[in-house]
Amino acid sequence: MSDPRPSDAPPSGARQQHSHRDDGTPHTETETGVDNSGLRRKARFALILGGLTAFGPLTIDMYLPALPELTRELGATSAQGQLTLTAVLLGLAFGQLVAGTVSDSVGRRKPLLVGLGVYFATSVLCALSGDVYALTALRFLQGFGAAAGMVIARASVRDLYSGVEASRFFSSLMLVTGLAPILAPVIGGQVLNFTNWRGVFVVLASFSVVLFLVTVMALPETKPGRWRQPLRPRSTARTFGGLLSSPSFLGNALAAGLAMAAMFAYVSGSSYVLQDIYGLSPQAYSLAFGSNALGLVAGGQINARLVGRIATESQLLLCALSAAAVAGLLLVVTVAVGLPLPFLLGALFVMISSLGFVMPNTTMLVLAERQEVSGSASALLGVLQFVVGALAAPLVGLGGVGSAMPMSLVMFGVVLASLTVHLTLGRRSTSAAAPAAG
């Protein structure tokens, strides 16, 4: 069953109230309490959802500087310490499935608040943990709680905005998506100047308390009762089956997951490539890493300016994936021929910056599939991004750390695959809708 409302409809079940600004442009407010065109309320909404979106990167990356100390104090091996990172990734993946599905049935606020409560409790228990196995289990539950923030943030945007406006909002969230992975280890490192690894989890617990209070006071329910779906196993299975059987959903979701795989490959391999092979100092590597992250953020902000004015989401996505594929090819050629470091850095910058266009546009195209189950669609998108993306990291390591070619081939291969699935599956809905629009 497709969404019966037009693409520019107000939030699910919301009644519109119209007024006009001084310049005569319409001013629309819905009974959900969120003013879709008021800049101040929209900025507040963006800040709250940005904080929820940051949960994943902060949970994954903030404790990385403390990982060696953590393993020593708990008497664990490095492999056991790394297992705590794997556990949180699994929690983030499967937690999105649960929270997204439940939020389609009971609304967004309740599962979000429960997730924040779980996150707070498990963060405190992580800080008190004295055993690496208990810590691993707690990290899984911590990721499970953090997943509620990530998946419900995406679904809430789709509840309130559609079309170009939603694409621009998702692009604005790229500011958080790009900066959080950079700032998280820095924050974690600064925390270690004053305390030990347990203090990192205390900071994360405090962050969840702030977001809990802000959510209670300032984030309204975005999915009114009339658009909620019954929470029954068969109904849930039919929802997931319907989404996965849609070529456009599967194509765009896989395109997003494969693009995320390029990011995972870059994060897992770039430190070895740029420091051990090309001889960059840690400070120079941080500068290069930060420059690429700024490119990712800039891509998202430029995308927000272009979408709907210059091109559609699908057109911008095609251009971005094509640019990323060309950059990936240049990356492989650079390593194969032995071109100087600036060529490698330039290719990496273009590819990572292109992802700033890819992620918001794939998210919008995926969530546009069926708005009444946007929570479930957001959940499947999150799972695909984490599962497909996480598979790229070990592929880079399998090729060894003595050459930049494994990282280059994986990045080029997954971006080329992302472009292929978008062309073969993801663009079907766009081409089918074009005649109807005319």
UniProtKB/TrEMBL annotation:
Its Gene Ontology biological processes?
xenobiotic detoxification by transmembrane export across the plasma membrane
UniProt keyword list: Cell membrane, Membrane, Transmembrane, Transmembrane helix, Transport
**Which CDD domains does its entry note?**
MFS_MdfA_MDR_like (cd17320)
Q: Name one GO cellular component term.
A: plasma membrane
What compartments host this protein?
Cell membrane
Q: Which GO terms describe its molecular function?
A: xenobiotic transmembrane transporter activity
Keyword Cell membrane attributed? yes
Top-level taxon of origin: Bacteria
Q: Which InterPro entries match?
A: Efflux_drug-R_Bcr/CmlA (IPR004812), MFS (IPR011701), MFS_dom (IPR020846), MFS_trans_sf (IPR036259), Sugar_transporter_CS (IPR005829)
Query: Could you confirm whether the keyword Transmembrane appears in this record?
Result: yes
* Primary location: membrane
Report biased composition (Basic and acidic residues) as residue ranges: 19-30
**Membrane-related topology note:** Multi-pass membrane protein
Q: Where are the transmembrane segments?
A: 45-63, 83-100, 112-134, 140-157, 169-187, 199-219, 240-264, 284-304, 316-337, 343-367, 379-398, 404-425
> According to the UniProt record, where is the region Disordered?
1-36
Q: Which PROSITE patterns match?
A: MFS, SUGAR_TRANSPORT_1
| Residues in Major facilitator superfamily (MFS) profile domain copies | 43-430
As for family, the record states:
Belongs to the major facilitator superfamily. Bcr/CmlA family.
The name on file for this protein is: MFS transporter, DHA1 family, bicyclomycin/chloramphenicol resistance protein
Q: Which organism is it from?
A: Actinopolyspora mzabensis
